[in-house]
Design brief:
- The chain is an alpha+beta fold.
- The chain has twelve helices and 23 strands.
- Helix content is 41%, strand content 29%.
- It is elongated and about 85 Å long.
- The relative contact order is 0.12.
- Belongs to the peptidase M50B family.
């Protein structure tokens, strides 16, 4: 049933995105006197058709896409005054450009609507690391970051990329309804390692001295999946070193970002909406990082362990929780309760999408401020897309992009969170589509724009057969790219 809902939601979203894009082409074609043969949603045989004075409006049986068919697009048609190639090159340029522009504008307008109605979720500081630049500058847990270097900042990736540059920062934060300006300079951190071991015996703590009698950092550089003995100041650990990941030295200010609070956002088989998770097996739940650590501990088997090492110092050891865990929580009326449940059931509940309220409160700007914030939000997104997408064609940033299967999953997950999240996803996808179509590649609108520009500058007609051949080759290349992204999506799905 959920798969069917996901597919229906995907189709509805896709139809909206396509109609907006094609309507841009249609509107400008009509404005410049170019005849539109068809305005179609989907492909294949028509299931609904309405004939206008000049245009055949139709809904086709396969709703994955759409098109406007303009007079003159077919190479067999003459270049009459009411055909695409019969009008001036600058008009053809605007007709082709209108599709991507309408897509991008639709995304911007959706963000204006979303932020005006629901507001937006700002960045909130979850924890401040002791003795870090952030603590020394006066930043505190639960500070809400409004602006960074005088500009609105909306997502943690954006903020992190700016911090990584290592330059002095000016943050405008909201602390208990008071706006405060904080200046902080990032500092270079030590390298961090994350170790996952199985079949574990022993303890570890303090400085790590060696792995199999080899200095820690030298061993980790060439680690292999094998049984190891890790010696440290406070103990010795033996086990199968199954996986190692690391974060290189980087500039940071010493904060953790907040994502979820410990208040349940909806009912489950154990907890009710409004209940507050207080403690799990003696581990207090006060932050997003606490929740993430508990989920990690619930996921570990009895002989497994997860270790975080900073430089050569053990920063954190996460051990598995018992098969049945004691959970303390308070109901929305303040009554303290304690229960014992299986860790599998608790993990299932805590892993439910949207189970917790967001840690950051919604910011609801009004009037022109809502408009300016929505534009700033859209601008940051558009810039990120413009920088990220080109790398996909040369094998970079693949992890940041989804194909059709991935988009279905994303939309399906958004449906579980509600209308606001669905509209955010639609806005992101339609801006993506608009920017993607602006790339100067054959078969895309961007490729046709280039041909129109060349004709405008040279004042000479381009050979239609040559242009059509280039677009045809480009179409098959894009089709191959689509199949590749579908394969990547399926690989991700089975890899999870």
């Amino acid at each position: 049933m959920s798969v069917l809902v996901n597919i229906i939601a995907f189709i509805l979203v896709f139809i909206f995105i396509v109609v907006v894009h094609e309507f841009g082409h249609y509107l400008f074609a009509v404005a410049f006197g170019v005849k539109v043969h068809e305005f179609a949603i989907g492909f294949g045989p028509a299931i609904y058709r309405k004939k206008g004075k000049k245009t055949d409006f139709r809904i086709n049986v396969f709703p994955l896409g759409g098109y406007v068919r303009l007079k003159g697009e077919d190479p067999q048609e003459q270049e009459d005054p009411d055909s695409l190639y019969g009008v001036a090159a600058w008009k053809r340029f605007l007709i082709v450009l209108a599709g991507p522009v309408f897509s991008i504008l639709a995304g911007y307008l959706l963000f204006v609507l979303i932020i005006s109605i629901w507001g937006y979720t700002p960045i909130i500081i979850d924890k401040v690391i002791p003795s870090s630049p952030a603590e020394q500058a006066g930043l505190q847990a639960n500070d809400i970051v409004l602006k960074l270097n005088g500009k609105y900042v909306f997502d943690t990736m954006d903020m992190t990329s700016i911090i990584r540059k290592g330059k002095p920062l000016t943050l405008e934060v909201l602390r208990k309804d008071t706006r405060i300006t904080v200046k902080v300079t990032p500092a270079l951190t030590q390298k961090e390692y994350f170790l996952y071991l199985k079949d574990v015996k022993g303890n570890i703590g303090g400085k790590v001295e060696s792995v199999n009698n080899i200095p820690f950092e030298r061993y980790i550089e060439k680690y292999t999946k094998e049984y190891v003995t890790i010696k440290s100041e406070l103990g010795e650990l033996k086990g199968l070193l199954d996986n190692v990941s690391n974060i290189p030295e980087r500039y940071a200010i010493g904060i953790y970002y907040g994502q979820f609070s410990n208040v349940f956002a909806k009912d489950s088989e154990i907890f009710s909406k409004g209940d507050t998770l207080v403690e799990v097996e003696g581990i207090k739940v006060e932050s997003t990082t606490d929740l993430m650590d508990i989920v990690t501990a619930l996921s570990l088997n009895s002989d497994e362990i997860y270790i975080r090492i900073k430089g050569e110092e053990v920063e954190q050891v996460i051990r598995p929780l018992p098969a049945n865990v004691k959970v303390r929580y308070s109901s929305k009326n303040g009554t303290q309760k304690e229960i014992t449940i299986s860790k599998e059931k608790l993990l299932s509940v805590l892993s439910t999408p949207g189970i917790f309220e967001m840690k950051a409160p919604k910011m609801k700007p009004r009037g022109l401020e809502a408009f300016s914030i929505a534009i700033a939000r859209s601008n940051r997104l558009a810039l990120y897309i413009w920088k990220t997408l080109p790398g996909v064609f040369v094998g970079r940033n693949i992890q940041d992009v989804s194909g059709p299967v991935g988009v279905v999953q994303v939309i399906g997950q958004a449906v579980q969170f509600g209308l606001e999240t669905v509209l955010i996803v639609v806005a992101v996808i339609t801006i993506n589509l608009g920017i993607f179509n602006l790339f100067p590649l054959p078969a895309l609108d961007g490729g046709r724009i280039i041909f129109a520009l060349v004709e405008m500058i040279s004042r000479k007609k381009i050979n239609r057969k040559v242009e059509n051949l280039i677009h045809t080759i480009g179409f098959f290349l894009l089709l191959g790219f689509l199949f590749f992204m579908t394969f990547v999506d399926i690989s991700r799905f089975f890899g999870e």
